[in-house]
Amino acid sequence: MSLEKARQKSEAIVNQEDVPMRSRMKEVEKVYAKARAAGKGSGKKKQTRSAKEASSRKGRPLDRRMMSDKREMHSKRKKVASKKRTKGKKPGGGGGGGAKGKGGGRR
């Protein structure tokens, strides 16, 4: 449905005097929403970010530069994931003790 048809339909709805104003407004909104939805369908669909990343990650790394890129991406992902996990916790790590509690050295 084109916007021109939607406008004509909405004018007909608005001119109905026996229907309450609130109902008329809802009907007009429905008509325009339907017209907008029909207009959106045409056109080229964009590729999502995750699809772009997946297509760029295909295949094995060929040389050391590609390997370093892969390591960098992995470390960034880990960093973001750890920030999401530690959100709201106290800074300074988990609930371990100081230097005394770490390690398994000799007595």
Summarize the amount of helix as a percent range. 55-70%
What's the main sheet like? none
- The shape is elongated
Overall pLDDT = 77
Please state the structural category. Answer: mainly alpha
Question: How would you describe this structure to a colleague?
Answer:
The protein has helices spanning 3-14, 21-40, 49-56, 64-85. The protein has 107 residues and is an all-alpha fold. The protein has a domain at 3-40. The mean pLDDT is 77.
Offer a quick outline of the entry.
Helices cover 58% and strands 0% of the residues.
Strand-helix topology:
Blueprint (H helix, E strand, L loop, with lengths): L2 H12 L6 H20 L8 H8 L7 H22 L22
Helix pairs in contact: 1-2
